[in-house]
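[job 4471] stage=fold_predict status=RUNNING
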Amino acid sequence: MGGPGDPPEGTPEGASAGGEDEYRSVVFDESFVRAARLQEFSAQERMADHAPAVRRRPALRRGLPRQALILVMLIAVAFGTAIYMGVRHPYQTPAAQSPEPLRMTVIPLAPQTAVPGATSVDQLYTHSPAAQFRVGAKGITMPAYRRTAHFSEGQVVAALTTAKDYLVESSLDPEVLTGATNRPVRILLDPRQLDQFDQSFDHPAADGRHAPTGWLIRFDPSRTQLADSKIRVQGTLQAAEFDSNTLEVVADHTFVYALKPTGSGAGAKASLFTVRRELHFRFDRDDLRMNQAELAVSYVQAGPLACSEDSVNHLHPLLAGQTAKAGGPAGTDPYATGSATALCGSLATSAQPKV
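[job 4471] inference complete, writing structure tokens
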């Protein structure tokens, strides 16, 4: 006999033995029941209130786990602390200090005899101390270099390269030498020195601070022109730390120019003019990154020049056959405060070509 729910003929062969087996794969665990949105009223509740068979349960609040909340709070506290310390940090980075003004000295060297001259520039160089000098930028050679205690090898190379660029532009560029422009030199300077640079050219003064010839080499174009563009150069570059934040490069070079009177023809005699420049460059890390330099010291000896000539704005070389006029340096005023005392030297005969 079958059960009350079985067919009269009994359970067919191959059919499920009962409803229990049919729904055995469906499992309603406790978490599933708690999460159900519908809940059935009890029989007593349905009889008392004639309510529907089921009611809707309020949605469960699904918040972040406790560990996640703690982590979010810690991140917020750390972020707020970082902002506070950034605003109220007692050890702020010190502001960049302005560089010291360039200190410059230009010393004319007066010849003891008439200036030697020759129609052949090569002959002048061959019989002068500059016979073995290299031509142009090739004479400004890079030294052996290595890193320092606070600067990398690449930063040392950058300082040396910028110093060389400054020497090339301020001593070898034909447009700078003739006074046509000073821009190639200006763009290589630390921006904090540009006021002093511009004032030097707008209002030249023999005060050891504002002489254009302290920044660069330029000749009076109304009296002098280059007889040969192949300027002879020899000297050294040396790099070292000035302090933990500054590199210093000292450049010491001799430049020899072949000159002749402005407007003279090919047959005019040329003469040699010698400039010894010692420049001290300073580089902080911003200068190294921007390929700019602070020029701290400029010491120049140049001749043949007459001591009575003003060498502040332009150099006025004595040319072939000319002699220095008698008299001391012009414009020396011992009562003027803040002005440098003018200096003048004597150009040794051995420094002139023997022609």
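[job 4471] summary: The two ends are 147 Å apart (CA to CA).
[job 4471] exit 0
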